[in-house]
Automatic annotation (TrEMBL):
Domain of life: Bacteria
Recorded GO MF terms: metal ion binding; metalloendopeptidase activity
Signal peptide span: 1-21
Biological process annotations from GO: protein processing
Domain Peptidase M13 C-terminal stretches: 478-670
PANTHER family: FI17812P1-RELATED, ZINC METALLOPROTEASE FAMILY M13 NEPRILYSIN-RELATED
Protein name per the record: Peptidase M13
Length: 673
């Protein structure tokens, strides 16, 4: 959230040399990768698939692929993200010549670093002056204003679908207030995190100095001390992703009584939220933060907002601040040595600020209807496969199975792009005003969100742009979403072998569907309501099976001393496990009894799992990997690939020996769905 307009993470248009060579010589009917959709040149056949299936499939690629200087990691997702960004750039460059085009104007203003430099700190001065003028009684209203301006505060306040009443919106309040990625960065004694902490304090001091503030070192130290106490109050990420624990509906009066020290009523009122009930995510953390705010001098509270504002708007402030923000947030925290070229960041900003305006022109040009038809069919096949798998489950009661079928029948697949667009008429975008554009875009976003309260659910709305290389499951909407940009090679290639496509996009589709049955998604019924629709015995058996997967992932140690967090990544690993299995079933069913050929020496099942491994090829910088291990609910790509060790069909395909590292005896393989 800190750099909110860099949601399209910085990536470079550097396709691995091997791929460029292939495309140069390609005939129009050939798939983009290799001869059947998989890059066999990227394999390392000196590795036994049973020892490390990731390296077997991707080892040579991993050795030969250098992470571009402005990237924190690089892989199959990055290649497509680069492509999306290049295409979006072309559209925005064309839009620039039309002075009435909002996207063209926003893009051009962001690119105009000379104007940004000339303006200096003048554009942000009024907001900084507002912060500095606030007194303690005015702090709640100040936070509401910060929220609207897009500046992170100690609380996350937003309107969202009510998990227990999915036909209505409700105000949500969540813990927030850390300038580093997680509480561990403040509290752990790990040497690398202690280093990051020291760098953070120096970063805050430099920001204050760049903003012309005196006594920067002492003030930075006070901010870090304040945030360290916030970190102590915070829940862990494991608890914070628990749908039951984080659903605490209360009245404002209850909240005032249980979390004294901060005027929540004034906060909501100033934020334009006319509500007397809300859902509180982490009650003890919110209470801890309120008490902490009460005893912290207003000067420290103000300073935190000043540095958060400078970091948040760094992209559109003078280069000295921009570079300082990059040096900490990207180099220290992610290991990225070089900042991306300005145009890439301009594409990212414009795509975030005016998402649907950019999306409209993007999909008109880059989403062929045939792709949607093919994806629709795959979704149907995988839903059918999941239905069949549910019938065979031994641990689930028949009455729960009936409800699980009903939930599958209720799925809303969303493919390519939304069928309705948001209206940005109220958002004013001005030439030569990069800072103002970002500020007003943040305010527009805030007002749009607040405006949902009391309205029927915006069921048409997507949480992802069609240019984004990703996919999503939404529990409340019982929806699965696949943006246009992920429906491309290596995930999906109409010219590739079907086995590779099912192992790629098929498994991604299965993954998102399976989220609705993972450790959290399974708590939501066919209407998207958070309620226990299973028998108690089903829940107990499901938890026991899930714990086996937790233990399997806890054992992985990607960095010395740093393990994958099995519980934090349980939802994603469950979705991989169930999704890959369903995709495999769907692939077999799609053959309709025909025997698939051997291609280049690989059986169909071997190609299916190679397709899976190929979409997960990714190299990480160490700092980025460390941050992900601490904060990301996804396991690293290598460990995600290894989910295959739980699948009987993978053993049949590759015949690993019992002594191989990934080998699991049949009764040690985890099967949940
Ligand atoms: Zn997922």
């Amino acid at each position: 959230m800190r750099r909110r307009f860099i949601t399209l993470s910085a990536l470079v248009a550097l396709v691995p040399a091997a791929l460029i060579a292939q495309s140069a010589a390609r005939n129009p009917d050939a798939p983009q990768y290799g001869t059947f959709g998989f890059d066999t040149a990227g394999m390392d056949r000196s590795v036994k698939p049973g020892d490390d299936f990731y390296a077997f499939a991707n080892g040579t690629w991993a050795k030969n692929t250098v992470i571009p200087a402005d990237e924190a990691n690089y892989g199959a997702f990055s290649v497509l993200q680069d492509l999306s960004r290049e295409r979006t750039r072309g559209l925005l460059e064309a839009a620039r010549s039309d002075p009435r085009s909002k996207i063209g104007t926003a893009y051009a203003a962001f690119l105009d670093t000379a104007a940004i430099e000339r303006a200096g700190l003048a554009p942000i001065r009024p907001w900084l002056a507002t912060i500095k003028a606030a007194d303690k009684p005015g702090y709640a209203a100040l936070l509401a204003q910060a929220d609207r301006n897009g500046v992170d505060t100690p609380f996350g306040l937003y309107v969202g679908q009510d998990s227990k009443n999915p036909d209505a919106y409700v105000v949500n309040l969540r813990q927030s207030g850390l300038g580093m990625p997680d509480r561990d960065y403040y509290l752990s004694n790990d040497a690398k995190l202690v280093e990051a902490r020291t760098a953070y304090r120096a970063h805050l001091a430099r920001l204050l100095t760049l903003a012309g503030e005196a006594d920067a070192d002492a003030r930075a130290a006070a901010i870090v001390a304040f945030e360290t106490q916030i970190a102590q109050a915070h829940w862990t990420r494991i608890d914070s992703r628990d749908a039951d624990k984080t659903y605490n509906r209360m009245t404002l009066a209850d909240l005032a009584r249980t979390a004294p020290g901060f005027d929540f009523a004034a906060y909501l009122k100033a934020g334009g939220l006319a509500a007397d009930t809300l859902v509180v995510g982490q009650p003890t953390a919110i209470a801890g933060e309120a008490a902490l705010i009460a005893k912290t001098p207003i000067a420290v509270l103000r300073d935190q907002l000043i540095v958060r504002s400078l970091d948040g708007f760094a992209d559109v402030l003078p280069a000295a601040i921009d570079r300082e923000s990059f040096a900490f947030n990207d180099t220290v925290l992610n290991g990225t040595p070089e900042q991306s070229e300005r145009w890439k960041r301009a594409v990212g900003f414009t795509s975030s600020a005016l998402t649907d305006e950019v999306s409209k022109v993007y999909v008109a040009r880059y989403f062929p209807p045939a792709t949607k038809a093919a994806a629709d069919e795959m979704v149907r096949n995988i839903i059918a496969a999941m239905n069949r798998r549910i019938d065979t489950l031994e641990w689930m009661a028949p009455e729960t199975k009936a409800k699980a079928h009903a939930k599958l029948a209720a799925f809303v697949p969303r493919i390519g792009y939304p069928d309705r667009w948001r209206d940005y008429a109220a958002l004013s975008i001005r030439a030569g005003d990069a800072f103002g554009n970002m500020l007003r875009a943040n305010q527009w976003q805030h007002d749009y969100n607040v405006g949902k309260l009391g309205k029927p659910i915006y069921r048409w709305e997507w949480g992802m742009a069609p240019m984004t290389v990703n996919a999503q499951a939404n529990f409340g909407l019982v929806a699965i979403t696949f943006p246009a940009a992920i429906l491309q090679p290596p995930f999906f290639d109409p010219k590739a072998d079907a086995a590779v496509n099912y192992g790629g996009i098929g498994a991604v589709i299965g993954h998102e569907m399976s989220h609705h049955f993972d450790d959290q998604g399974a708590k939501f019924d066919a209407r998207g309501r958070l309620t226990q629709w299973w028998t108690d015995a089903d829940v107990a058996r499901f938890k026991a099976l899930s714990q086996k997967l937790v233990a399997q992932y806890d054992a992985y140690q990607p960095l010395p001393g740093l393990h994958v967090k099995g519980q934090l990544t349980l939802g994603e690993n469950s979705a991989d496990l169930a999704g890959l299995a369903a995709a495999h079933d769907a692939y077999l069913a799609s053959l309709k009894g025909a025997k698939p050929p051997v291609i280049d020496g690989f059986s169909a099942d071997q190609r299916f799992y190679l397709g899976w491994a190929q979409v997960w090829r990714r190299n990480y910088r160490e700092a980025n990997l460390r941050q992900r291990l601490l904060t990301d609910p996804h396991a690293p790509s290598e460990q995600r690939t290894w989910i295959v060790r739980n699948m009987d069909a993978w053993y049949d395909a590759y015949r690993p020996a019992p002594a191989d590292r990934l080998y699991l005896a049949p009764d040690a393989r985890v099967r949940i769905w």
